[in-house]
Amino acid sequence: MQLWHVWFTVVFPSLVVAHMAMQEPPGIRYKTNPYTTQVDYDYVSPLSPSGSNFPCKGYHKDLGTPSGQSVRTYNAGRTYELILAGSATHAGGSCQLSLSYDGGTTWEVFKSFIGNCVKPDPQGDQTFHFTIPSSAPSGEALFAWSWFNNLGNREMYMNCAVVTITGGSGGGGGIDGGDEVGPVIDGNEGIGKRDAASEDRSGSIQKRSFGVGLFIANIGNGCTVPAGKNVMFPNPGPDVEYAGNEGSRAAPEGNCGEGNYYGGWGGAAARLGVSRAMGYSWAAGAMVIVWYWAFGAGLRI
After folding, report:
1. CA gyration radius for the chain?
2. Which member of 73, 123, 142, 209 has the lowest number of beta carbons within 10 Å of its beta carbon?
């Protein structure tokens, strides 16, 4: 462990445990991941408000490297545990679990928790249960936990682990995909990337679909979740678990698209990029106005 982190832990212990993180399965660069080569000591932090490190805090780029190896094997149709760590629960919120077979470009949500995720009690048991859909493709995939907190800054948390799905009926996927042309990994940008020919055959992404698109908000994409509420995902998917006070639930606000984030599969990254570009344009315009009034107007006096 680095000396600065030891010092920081001793002097500011409450800050070190702030927020929450996915402990099981252990995410990429998480301290208990046996393949981690570079530990993220701020793993509990949210995604950047600009969305610059979406998805997975940018760690999906470790795929294809020693630190991007599979940490768990899940059998489709079986139930497993999700365990969260941390003490700053921000009064709970809503979470989603999703899988990506293309290195984080597209995601399918297979489980949504609306309310009490995370559990509001800082000392409470943060264990949740999920079932891998029987129709999920077999192969290597990114497993993601995403969280929208109830109280506090409007943030999005997202941790990702590399897992292996077995026994799925949705056709081959990931590196081990049965109808894959090959595990093409280019610059560690994805696992089991498909080419056009493989998409035209029976194993297309749409035909494999087992969930809904990932809900994305609070990261510069024009969609936000209301403060003090547990966000109601527009399209929570096939497996939904409700908890907490029904009156504390609320829909997201802003340009959140139809259903989940612009319908989910495909286009999420592109839309986010457009949103960022628009944000940069507004920021540049504001700077010009400030400069004009501060300097241009002064020169005329």
Report:
1. 20
2. 123
The answer to whether the CB of 164 falls within 8 A of the CB of 241 is no
Q: Are strands 72-75 and 93-100 parallel, antiparallel or unpaired?
A: unpaired
For residues 71 and 30, is the Cβ–Cβ distance under 8 A? no
Q: What is the mean pLDDT of the chain?
A: 75
- The tally of CA atoms less than 13 A away on the side-chain side of residue 7 is 3
Q: Average of pLDDT values for 196-214?
A: 51
Helix, strand, coil tally for the chain in percent (to 5) = 25, 25, 50
pLDDT per residue as tens digits for the range 221-272: 999 999 999 999 999 999 999 999 999 999 999 998 654 443 333 334 434 4
Closest CA to 244 of 95, 134, 23, 97: 95
Reduced to 3 states (helix: H, G, I; strand: E, B; else coil), residue 248 is helix
Helix (H, G, I), strand (E, B) or coil at 290: helix
